[in-house]
Amino acid sequence: ITLCERSINWKNNMSLTRLFREIEQQEWIDLPEGWLQGRTIFGGLAAGVLMHKALCTIGDESKRLLSCSITFVGPVQAGKARITAEILRQGKSVTTLEVRLWQENAVQSILIASFGTDRESSIHVRQEPVIPAYPFADQLAPLPFAKMMPECYQHFDLRWAEGKFPMMGSPSPDFGGWARFSPEEQANRKMTLADFVTLTDIWPPGVLSMFKTLAPASSLTWHITFIHSLKEQLHDWFKYKVMTEYAEHGYATEQAYVWNEQDQLLAICRQTVTVFALSLIHI
Question: Distance (Å, rounded) from C-alpha 239 to C-alpha 140?
């Protein structure tokens, strides 16, 4: 079974089977309705589409995903989009490729991913972050879906375990908790990298808890380093914690960590966020 074939079933019962078949068969696809986040399609969906194309392009089972960088160039809309992929270099150990999402003859999102084979090394460093001791997800109240929330949230289940909700005027940023795909939206199955990328992006920027009123903020760049290969199911919970390092002049820089239910570190994320809230406290 190839990486591409393992990713085909991503969100079968969320009406995306056709989308992924289109990705494999042609450059032009139709992005589905129901995934808006503000004035654009949810960035996680765009990232997942790019990742699915990357998995279908790499064609080398011996190489696992090491890292990927995504730049959200412009707003992506539901409807026609063109997905292109190019292998930039294919070496003995590492293959690097670029995937682009086009709309209106312009690039709207870019993914650069590096896949590599494991190599023998005498260097072993594990200075991992302290794992937050959160209550189990079933002991926490779910984030309720309201009409004022972006429609993409209806596809996920979030449980806050630390920090304030967005728009609560917190004196400090950041939060943490648990997230998974909504069991009501799809049947359980093996999770793919495209799933993981989409799920992880559902967490809002850490500075949103400092907002006092509704105001736009969006990801500009997002880099993910993958630590361990995925072995989880779609209904499994994933622990998340974000830490904002700096926010000023309309931009924020943050780092986040993702663990599985067994507290195994899966990914380290770094993100640059554009911030439009004039009342945001400087960090």
Answer: 13
